[in-house]
């Protein structure tokens, strides 16, 4: 079933209706999908609540839908994962965002580390990139039927990450020089983990000083195995392992 997101204030439960007024969604529903009055769609309020709705009226400015059923989305994991991703070159960030949203990441924050090749010229350039990445996150969330739209945060310098460490139950940093700690071992020794941060380095990896600074501030260095993974692979692998051990990828 086709799925769409609306803002919470577009849902009028007391009147049993939902209004879709996004120009993009209006075009997609009426021109691309060619849906009409009487057709059913699925609508999410971006806050983990889903509605089965029936289109009752279509005009140029909005689509009115009748609420058939309300239910809690079943697609959000019990663990909150925030990915701190060093900005890679080319369009690799597009793939990173798309696939990590599919796996279940709640938020992605681009970080600037010493070996990042990409240099952001000014605030306007940064805002344009983040806006574009947010749109990719939105499309991925819609495709995989997420109950929320994961947020793409503003860019952060790597030395400033330690300011948010206290907000997490655990911070993990995959590092090629780490030989002893695997994620499974680290997770087994921790109970009640609900919020995890993952810090991923750029194409050239983190410097030794960067890793030492993060670890001394509370991050846990982990190995992803004997092979060196690309930056666009490392975050997805780390997230997948965590979602298996702590989330919902492993089933019940």
Automatic annotation (TrEMBL):
Catalytic activity as recorded in UniProt: uridine(1498) in 16S rRNA + S-adenosyl-L-methionine = N(3)-methyluridine(1498) in 16S rRNA + S-adenosyl-L-homocysteine + H(+)
Compartments (UniProt record): Cytoplasm
Domain of life according to the entry: Bacteria
Primary localization class, coarse: cytoplasm
Gene Ontology molecular function, alphabetical: rRNA (uridine-N3-)-methyltransferase activity
UniProt xrefs under Pfam families: Methyltrans_RNA, PUA_4
Sorted UniProt keywords: Cytoplasm, Methyltransferase, rRNA processing, S-adenosyl-L-methionine, Transferase
EC top class, as a word: transferase
UniProt EC number: 2.1.1.193
GO cellular component: cytoplasm
All residue ranges annotated as the Ribosomal RNA small subunit methyltransferase E methyltransferase domain in the record: 76-242
Signal sequence residues: none
Function, in words: Specifically methylates the N3 position of the uracil ring of uridine 1498 (m3U1498) in 16S rRNA. Acts on the fully assembled 30S ribosomal subunit.
Identification of the protein by name: Ribosomal RNA small subunit methyltransferase E
